[in-house]
Specification:
Length: 101
């Protein structure tokens, strides 16, 4: 199993609009071999931002790598580029994990 997470710092007061934007977008993940699951996670808030993470689970690191080279990836990220920029306080921070136990 392989996990990919993007940590996203979202501007205060933009959380609900951010969630709704993600709810409506098409990720095309359900058409990708090796995709297992997706969650949008919300963490703590402070005076500066609310932390979110997009969390995907893959059957293998190769399945994730294949997705990043796929037409589904291009289509999903083309639409992601249309997100209102005032949501984000900096670029997403990608974190990759391989299950070891």
């Amino acid at each position: 199993m392989f996990l990919a997470m993007n940590r996203l710092r979202i501007a205060p007061g933009k959380e609900d609009a951010f969630i709704e934007h993600w709810r409506k977008r098409n990720s095309y993940l359900d058409k990708v071999p090796g995709f297992v699951s997706f969650n949008l996670l919300r963490a703590e808030s402070n005076d500066e931002y609310t932390l979110f993470a997009s969390h995907t689970v893959w059957a293998s690191e190769q399945a994730f790598a294949d997705w990043t080279q796929s037409e589904a990836f291009r289509k999903a990220h083309m639409a992601a580029g249309q997100s209102p920029r005032d949501f984000y306080l900096g670029p997403p921070q990608l974190e990759l994990f391989e299950a070891v136990l």
